[in-house]
Design brief:
single chain, 429 residues, FAD/NAD(P)-binding domain, 2 domains, 6-stranded mixed beta sheet, 5-stranded parallel beta sheet, 8 helices, binds flavin-adenine dinucleotide, oxidoreductase
């Protein structure tokens, strides 16, 4: 279906989730005059940024009966991106409060709350309302049923469009290595890490090389006996980190033994107490029923035109916030504005066939270049996608965003311990 077939605006639009994406969607849709209902399963807004000291009953989050805790933030978390890249193009990040270049997470939540208050978005949110089913009324009809539950009741409502903003940093992806299941020590995913205390005097293997692996290793090294960082990167050199006496960088885990040994590629062996998986998360849409039109396969949500619209179901069904390795906040801002304007009929989508062709070409190009499926939504900090989106809504990504991102990436590449400790004052002059 093309955007020309949409009912006349205003549309009734359901937004799922009141994190950054849901709030940006709500603002953009409201500005376009649509009637918006934001469903939020928790009792507050902010999503990932609403720190929750609780962890799940199963530290690897494998038990299907566990109660799911949404946020994966740890208590000491500071942003990975500098504060100048945490705001929106038309609503900059706070200039008071925690003024560090990489502020702590409460500052981000404060910013989100201020944004929601300023644009009167809170009144659009139904808190403690979990969406349990999203399904087209029938295949010849473009209306959607949204089934939701709160403490008192469950309800089915019809909407003209659904914008999925449920986040993708909640369901852990685990490292797989022979012997993992029978290894006798404790295993935890970073989703269930909050504070370093349980690691006191322990020997810990931390798997991963992203910001969480680095941050958490440094934090637990203050109390742990030894910390062994394990990276699957082929470039990794086995070495002791120069910023600490008890952190070693190692290669990928080859296997683990029932006697508690962890054996790395190259043959090094450690006898560890805990393995901490800082290995990322999976996309998951348990409420979405599309009869196989949208699937999640090896980290690819697809097919999605421009990471947002399934060609067969757009523009009535859209996904915000899927890509990563970018300036996330501005990316979602421009995605939201584009979706809202398409739903108003001000901007048109290409035909279903054209969208399908473009998605197919994207996948084919990845295959030709030998890029694995799970990188489908990794934008590698290139801003072309943001430039393209901004252009669709008649805006531009500010020059300072381009400049600052370039400087930041250089800092990450060359910053060593300074990056690990977030010691950077970007000179923006
Ligand atoms: C450890 C960590 C560090 C990060 N650091 C940074 C950083 O420094 N800078 C940066 O820009 N980004 C960072 N991110 C990425 C971060 O996820 C995004 O900034 C942003 O929070 C994404 O917002 P979202 O709205 O897409 O998802 P979320 O923030 O996850 O919000 C999703 C919302 O949907 C709700 N929800 C889910 N399912 C349902 C349902 N069925 N019914 C109703 N409601 C539902 C959830 O309760 C939640 O409120 C980090 C992420 C993690 C995990």
């Amino acid at each position: 279906m093309g955007s020309t077939d949409l009912p006349a605006p205003p549309l009734n639009v359901a937004v799922i989730g009141a994190g950054l994406a849901g709030l940006l969607a709500a603002r953009a849709l409201k500005i376009e005059g649509h009637r918006v209902v934001v469903h939020e399963k928790s009792d507050r807004l902010g999503g990932t940024w609403a720190y929750d000291p609780r962890v799940e009953s199963d530290p690897l989050s494998l038990d299907p009966d566990r109660e799911i805790v949404h946020s994966s933030l740890y208590q000491s978390l500071r942003t990975n991106l500098p504060r100048q890249l945490m705001g929106f193009s038309d609503y900059p990040f706070s200039t008071d409060g925690d003024l560090r270049t990489f502020p702590g997470h409460p500052e981000v939540l404060r910013f989100i709350n201020e944004f929601a208050a300023e644009f009167r978005l809170v009144e659009l949110i139904r808190f403690e309302t979990e969406v349990v089913r999203v399904e087209r009324v029938d295949s010849g009809n473009d209306q959607w049923i949204v089934e939701s539950r709160n403490r008192e009741m469950s309800s089915n409502e019809l909407f003209d469009a659904v914008v999925v903003c449920n986040g993708h940093h909640t369901i852990p992806k685990l490292a797989d290595f022979p012997g993992r299941e029978k290894w006798p020590g404790q295993q935890i995913h970073s989703h269930n890490y909050r504070v370093p205390d349980p690691f006191e005097n322990r020997v810990v293997v931390v798997i991963g090389d992203g910001p969480s692996a680095v941050d958490i290793s440094l934090e637990i090294a203050d109390v742990a006996k030894q910390v062994y960082l394990s990276s699957r990167s082929p470039k990794v050199k086995v070495t002791k980190l120069d910023c600490r006496d008890n952190i070693w960088q190692h290669s990928k885990i080859d296997h683990a033994n029932e006697n508690g040994e962890v054996v790395f590629e190259g043959g090094a062996v450690v006898h560890a107490d805990i393995i901490l998986h800082c290995t990322g998360f999976m996309y998951s849409f348990p409420f979405l029923k599309t009869e196989g039109i949208v699937t999640v396969e090896e980290g690819r949500v697809g097919p999605l035109y421009k990471h947002i619209f399934p060609p067969k179901l757009g523009p009535n069904l859209s996904f915000l916030g899927i890509p990563y390795m970018t300036v996330v906040t501005q990316m979602i801002e421009f995605q939201a504005k584009w979706v809202a304007r398409i739903l108003s009929g001000k901007v048109w989508l290409p035909s279903e066939e054209e969208m399908e062709t473009e998605v197919r070409q994207h996948y084919q190009l990845m295959e030709e270049k030998g890029i694995p499926k799970h990188y489908t939504h990794a934008l590698q900090f290139e801003l072309d996608y943001l430039d393209w989106l901004a252009n669709q809504v008649g805006e531009r990504v500010h020059e300072t965003t381009h400049l600052l991102l370039k400087r930041y990436l250089k800092f990450v590449m060359e910053g060593g311990n300074k990056w690990r400790h977030r010691e950077w004052e970007p000179n923006l002059m």
